[in-house]
Amino acid sequence: MLKNTSVNVNRTARPAAFPVLAGTLGAVIASLVALATPAAAADVAIPPASSVTVSSGWTLVFDSEARYTSWSGPRGFPNNFALGTPARGSQFYVPLAFAATGLVGSDVKLELLARTGYVDARQNAGGGLVGHVSTMTDTVVSATATWLGTPGFQPFLALNANLPTGRANLAGTQAFARSDPDLVEVPTFGEGFNLGATLGGNIPIGQNSLATVSVSHTHRGAFTRDPTDIFGGLDTRIEPGASTSGTAQLAHIMGALLLRAAVTYTYTSATRIDGGLAVIQGDAFALTGTAAYTWNPEHVTTFTTAFNHTRSNANFILAVNQFQREAFNSNSNALRLRLDHAWRITPQWTLGMFGSWFHRDSNAYVPTAFQFIPAKTKLALGGSARYQVAPNSAITVRAEHFWVNQASRPDIDFGGIIPGTSIPALSFTGWTLSLGGNITF
Fold first, then answer.
1. Cβ–Cβ under 8 Å, residues 220 and 242
2. 414: containing domain
3. Of 255, 17, 29, nearest to 142 (Cα)?
4. Three-state DSSP class for 144?
5. What pTM was computed for the model?
6. Which of 84, 167, 77 is nearest to 130 (CA)?
7. CATH number at residue 294
8. DSSP assignment of 67-105, as one string?
9. I need a labelling partner for 277 at 20 to 30 A (CA). Which of 74, 250, 303, 362 fits?
10. pLDDT, tens digit, 9 for 90 and up, residues 41-76
11. Structurally, how many domains does the chain consist of?
């Protein structure tokens, strides 16, 4: 998100609405990623304060937030442990982000971003199965160069890397600190070294529209994680498949109404587990849409929607030495709706209220994480207050209460029925509280 904090560069060849539209497209990307990987939502920080451009032409932004989530329910995660025993969990997460944006010469805009964080996660799954992890998260660094010298077209190239500063391998009962990714912001705590590149371009259409197209490829490095059997198993070596994606986005302004839409297709190559071919995860399709209406300078209402569909996986069958598409889709469809309203009551104070609805239509299995994600519906309601301390800094506090209804699950059929793995319908409730701030130089 912070990479969209732009230096104000005016060019007569650019449509009047172009800078506004260009600055909004990052939010579409953020929502795509957040739906595809639930933990990624935790890395979308609060909006930066109004940018202040220093005499050197560079803008620097520091952004951080402390978030605390607590939940309780009839069972922990995974749900088939400690049957009939109530469970609870909590997570304290502090993301940190630093961004720098400026001009190199007169025609190249350079955007640099570094993002990391700290997380403390606890889960009491019942029956004495207690997990606790306190660690740094992985660190993400990126650099984006955009060419501004061609009227009507702005090509860009981005390079990004995931640095494994977190913890993928959890010893003993620490593994029980991993929670349902639909309940907490950071369900896992690290993976390998990933390196990716994105090539794309911004194309203005008339005075009020902007299209963006891009192609990305990410190489995901191998990492070692804890065994599936924490009571004496061996560590597991995972070599995730590389992913290639294409994205098309469109933004349009009609008076007080801003519309945005995006579609992304992602293909992932074969994943190896302990050196052997294991699975090709299904192709993923993601759709997002946003409509924001400015009623007057004090009131803005925003509606966002995001949908993700993943095709069935292809599992490697050793007996025939080839991949075969699974008989049933072990992935799921996910739909998220959110409505926000912001009310600026004074030049310094802005109040907000929001509601969101999330639905996962079926139970899903993530083979690279050895993790089942239950089907569920989640409703959340909350509010926020933002105080503009100075033109270049702000503080925001948020509170959210959520309710989760989880569907029942029959015994798992994984090459045969696994007795005792069925789960009845469950309900969870929880709170998320946060305090954050940002400052721009």
1. yes
2. 2-63+153-159+185-440
3. 29
4. strand
5. 0.81
6. 77
7. 2.40.160
8. EEEEEEESS-SSTTSSTT--EEEEEEEEEEEEEEEEEET
9. 362
10. 333 333 333 333 333 479 999 999 999 999 988 765
11. 1
